[in-house]
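Appendix B. One record, verbatim.
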Amino acid sequence: MHSGPASRGAALVLERLYRHLPAMEQHLHIAERTGWPDEIPTLSAGYPREVWDAHPHLRKPTRNWMAAHAGFRRLADVLRDDAEQFLDAKIAADFYGARLARLARMLTVNLHGHHTFEDRSFFPEINAVDPRFGSGLEVLEADHMELDQTLDRFERHARRSLQLAELDPGQLKDEVGALHKVTEGLQGFLARHLADEEDLIVPIILHHRMRG
């Protein structure tokens, strides 16, 4: 699992970024947003979500990108549900630990890879085609820095749970309780971030006939 100096460095950058945001912009933080505010331009009015699936310009690369988002949501749901099943004594510690080891790694590795691709390649591609939406892309990039910190917390609790499952099962329940709380936070983060990301980017793709 990913952690270490790089994630701590990202935390410092993120802290500085939000510390210097004007008060009027604090509502752009992922913890405060309820969608895109009016000052962030989007094309969603012309391309509402309900028309996407049948739109002729929603091509396979974009569908695959959105399918990855759906997969992240499902994995977070399963990890939360598994923790609840264990805490309710409905599944055994060894069964829970085996699933946690596999699914936690699957989620974290793929999330890190996905948002790295977006930051380094996908977002610059979008910005080059239509720079009017750069402010929204900057917000999403700040979300990604926050996501690294959320995943770091998740990974620490998951790793600790796996260690206790082998070395001290008597303490496992308390640690899984903490992991469950962090997983719920990750779920909320993904729900907000992925919805905002799609609401900003998919209409741009449809409008400019990108990624065909």
